[in-house]
């Protein structure tokens, strides 16, 4: 985020009205003080811009708040939380929206610009508050220098556990100089969010969680039900889920569904063949080794690179492309090229997606979450899972890393499903490879005022798809999920398989 020289005109007008109507009563929402500063409760904000990774920005107001690193030791070390306020377009209701990003390890402030269009309707009368989870973004970020997603996969794929552990220990030792890694989990973030609520002077908030953020939202609603007005869960993580345990089988099912679409498409099948068979051919060759280095252009830097194709490149590409059906639609073509010995696209696309993940994720924060909350419950994978694309790689990696990573404590009742009469809207993508729709079904089961919508043809993170932004805004306005007319979602469909370089049907 970067500073702005002046307030947006719309915000200034809204604040002026708030000041005029307030009389001698202290305003409860954002207002300008005698010095021209924007105040929201006890917090003082400055104009800023939230930059999108691919250009463009969102005008906002930014501040920081010091909080105890260990909430049970308020006189101990303190850390700074980065906070952004994206103002409502008109007169705002008193209950703002908290957007909680995923990962674990993503910054809410850095993520919001990519989702801002999904919030356009709901921002007509509500502010959006973004709090970077401790360990991410501007909140004492816990990045692991030199420890990329590709490096981790490469170590695991080669059974080089010693290398993986060495990288993890080096990251732990460096970060421990400025952070107690036991206090960067979900429960700590939940307490931070409520402290920000109190500092804003807000009685109730609306929670919008995305992916791992849905775990945070559920935990907050359970801990602070009186301060939770409504909840939206996008790509749902049930409280009962051991993060990482089911990633391999979920990915396999999503790929099966995507590959079946190619087999059922005559142009795709004729031009590219069965992608599942092509995948088997490519995996066998990569595992056998002996492939000469391939020269290709790095899609991020534009530099020429030379690299030996390895299974790690294939795994990372399949895993990350499956998140978005538009990307997954190109997998049959990429696999077809690789099966013919042309690995340039495979290497280039793999490098692009792994570099993007490395930039977005604070790996140290992710390890603090997973090692405290999930790794101790990993079970041996079911028979046959080693044959899947991801195999036991992720679980094996996390087990090795968590063996040397500090662990905190989970909140009491952490695994208890959310219950009660809380208004809740859950949304899932039909082809989500990491949080499949049945997770959403599980969460709404114990909530009589909850509803689950499955978006046809979509993948992970679907709040911006089709008419979903309008449905999202309607739910926040009414808190009645059952009254939503979701028939507009029927117009959504999956991206057709990309059957060649000349278009979808060459």
Could you describe the 3D structure shown?
The protein has 506 residues and is of the alpha/beta class. It has a domain at 2-142 and 179-234: Rossmann fold (3-Layer(aba) Sandwich), CATH 3.40.50. 38% of the residues lie in helices and 15% in strands. It contains 17 helices and 14 strands. A hairpin with a 5-residue loop joins strand 4 (43-51) and strand 5. It is globular, with a radius of gyration of 23 Å.
Task: Please specify the SSE layout and strand pairing.
Blueprint: E1 2-3, H1 9-22, E2 31-32, E3 38-40, E4 43-51, E5 57-68, E6 78-86, E7 97-100, H2 108-115, E8 128-131, H3 149-157, H4 161-175, H5 186-200, E9 205-210, H6 212-223, E10 228-234, H7 247-263, H8 266-272, H9 275-288, E11 294-297, E12 304-307, H10 311-321, H11 325-328, H12 331-339, H13 344-360, H14 363-373, H15 393-402, E13 424-429, H16 437-444, E14 450-455, H17 468-478
Parallel strand pairs: 7-8, 7-9, 9-10, 10-13, 13-14
Antiparallel strand pairs: 1-4, 2-3, 3-4, 4-5, 5-6, 6-8, 11-12
Helix pairs in contact: 3-4, 3-10, 3-15, 5-6, 9-12, 10-13, 14-15
């Amino acid at each position: 985020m970067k500073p702005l020289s002046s307030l947006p005109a719309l915000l200034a007008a809204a604040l002026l009205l708030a000041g005029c109507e307030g009389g001698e009563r202290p305003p409860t929402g954002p207002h300008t003080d005698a010095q021209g500063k924007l105040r929201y409760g006890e917090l003082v904000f400055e104009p800023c811009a939230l930059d999108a990774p691919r250009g463009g920005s969102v005008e906002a107001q930014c501040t920081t708040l010091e909080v105890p690193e260990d909430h049970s030791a308020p006189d101990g070390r303190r850390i700074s939380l980065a906070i952004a306020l994206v103002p409502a377009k008109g007169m705002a209701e008193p209950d703002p929206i908290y957007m909680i990003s995923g990962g674990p390890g993503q910054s809410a402030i850095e993520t919001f610009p990519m989702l801002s269009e999904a919030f356009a309707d709901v921002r007509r009368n509500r502010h959006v508050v973004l709090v970077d989870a401790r360990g991410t973004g501007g909140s004492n970020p816990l990045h692991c220098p030199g420890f990329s997603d590709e490096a981790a996969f490469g170590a695991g794929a080669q059974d080089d556990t010693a290398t993986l552990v060495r990288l993890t220990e080096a990251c732990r030792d460096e970060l421990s100089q400025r952070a107690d890694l036991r206090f960067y989990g979900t429960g700590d973030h939940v307490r931070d969010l409520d402290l920000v609520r109190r500092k804003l002077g807000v009685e109730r908030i609306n929670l919008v969680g995305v992916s791992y953020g849905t775990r945070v939202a559920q935990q907050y609603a359970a801990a602070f039900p009186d301060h939770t007005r409504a909840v939206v869960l996008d790509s749902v993580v049930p409280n009962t889920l051991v993060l990482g345990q089911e990633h391999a089988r979920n990915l396999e099912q999503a790929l099966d569904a995507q590959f079946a679409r190619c087999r059922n498409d005559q142009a795709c099948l004729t031009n590219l063949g069965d992608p599942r068979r092509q995948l088997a051919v490519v995996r066998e060759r990569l595992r056998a080794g002996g492939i000469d280095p391939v020269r290709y252009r790095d899609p991020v830097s534009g530099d020429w690179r030379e690299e030996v194709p390895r299974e790690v490149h294939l795994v990372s590409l399949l895993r990350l492309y499956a998140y978005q059906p538009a990307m997954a639609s190109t997998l049959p073509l990429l696999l077809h090229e690789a099966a013919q010995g042309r690995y340039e696209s495979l290497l280039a696309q793999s490098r692009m997606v792994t570099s993007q993940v490395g930039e977005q994720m604070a790996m140290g924060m992710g390890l603090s979450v997973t090692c405290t909350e999930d790794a101790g419950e990993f079970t041996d994978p079911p028979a046959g899972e080693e044959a899947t694309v991801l195999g036991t790689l992720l679980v094996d990696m996390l087990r090795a890393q968590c063996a040397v990573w500090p662990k905190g404590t989970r909140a009491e009742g952490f695994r208890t499903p959310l219950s009660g009469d809380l208004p809740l809207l859950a949304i899932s993508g039909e082809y989500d490879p990491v949080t499949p729709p049945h997770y959403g079904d599980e969460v709404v089961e114990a909530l009589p005022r909850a509803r689950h919508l499955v978006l046809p043809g979509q993948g992970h993170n679907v709040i911006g798809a089709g008419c979903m932004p309008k449905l999202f805004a309607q739910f926040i306005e009414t808190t009645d999920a059952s009254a939503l007319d979701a028939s507009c979602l029927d117009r959504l469909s999956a991206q057709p398989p990309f059957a060649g370089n000349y278009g979808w049907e060459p």
